[in-house]
Amino acid sequence: EIVLTQSPGTLSLSPGERVTLSCRASQTVSNTYLAWYRQKRGQAPRLLIYSTSIRATGIPDRFSGSGSGTDFTLTINRLEPEDFGVYYCQQYGNSPPYSFGQGTKLEIK
Amino acid sequence: QVQLVQSGGEVKKPGASVKVSCKTSGYTFTDYWMHWLRQAPGQGPEWIGWNNPNSGDTRSAERFQGRVVMTRDTSINTFYLELTSLRFDDTAVYYCARGPRSGAFDLWGQGTLVTVSS
User: Fold this and answer.
1) Mutation for testing the A interface, residue in B33, B63, B108 having most A CBs under 10 Å
2) Residue-wise over A24-60: b if at least 16 C-beta within 10 A, else e?
3) Which of A28, A40, A50, B99 falls between 20 and 30 A from A96, CA-CA?
């Protein structure tokens, strides 16, 4: 099973700033099948990025993903109030189980 | 409207079973596999398994094998997850989420809180 480790655990930033979140896998993620989700309190996760860099429907171009192998990043430019929440990465390129990271909490400063 | 609507919260005793439903609407039932996940308080989501809407085939994570049953009813476009021999650490919010067999999940249910308590 692939273990995903996200860093940092918590970030405190202000609207308008730029942020980069990291996700490191314990082994190579096949086909760069890596996704990012954001979850707000009391809600289900929402898909932001899949296949490392493809934005899901309705996701603004302020969000971008990159990476390969075992190291992946999510960058958010010009943070807006609705961007705050917990971000999870997920791999689905290898045999199940499809694992998630433990999350990065993005807080308003 | 494209949505997944799950059944309501449940409280169960250790050793009991729970069955959660996930009703789909607004899209072709057979176009997407249904995955089940759970999320314990303060943790990331954990994948439980998937259900092929066409054949009914299922696959679950090894740690749930023997305790989980995933089914579907094509006549009412609904999927089901049953978890047996419940333990205290099965307390979590359970989600259904659609996607390819191996893929990202683009639509999630609202979640069902299952509490295991004596």
Assistant:
1) B108
2) bbeeebeebbbbbbbbeeeebbbbbbbebbebbeebe
3) A40
